[in-house]
Design a protein that fits this description.
The protein is mainly α. It has helices at about 1-15, 25-30, 45-55; strands at about 35, 45. The chain has a domain at about 30-60. It is built from 3 helices and 2 strands. It has a two-stranded antiparallel ribbon with strand order 1-2. It comes from Rosa chinensis (China rose).
Length: about 70
């Protein structure tokens, strides 16, 4: 019977689609955002973004030295 087999396969596919994603977006965000602006506490991913942030948001201030 193709109808029974199709129904079972459709239920299996729907169950796979409806599963909750593994992990949390909050956890992934915390891992990715490692640098924060000391003035406004904005979280950034790397030193280049911090320099760009300072250029646009804090033009009168000098960005902190890059940690190596």
């Amino acid at each position: 019977m193709t109808r029974g087999k199709q129904k079972i396969e459709a239920q299996r596919r729907n169950a796979e689609r409806n599963q909750k994603p593994k992990g949390s977006q909050f956890e992934a965000r915390a891992v990715a955002l490692k640098i924060s602006c000391p003035i406004c506490k904005a979280q950034l991913a790397n030193a280049k973004q911090l320099a760009d942030h300072y250029a646009s948001k804090h033009p009168r201030e000098q960005p902190p030295a890059e940690p190596e």
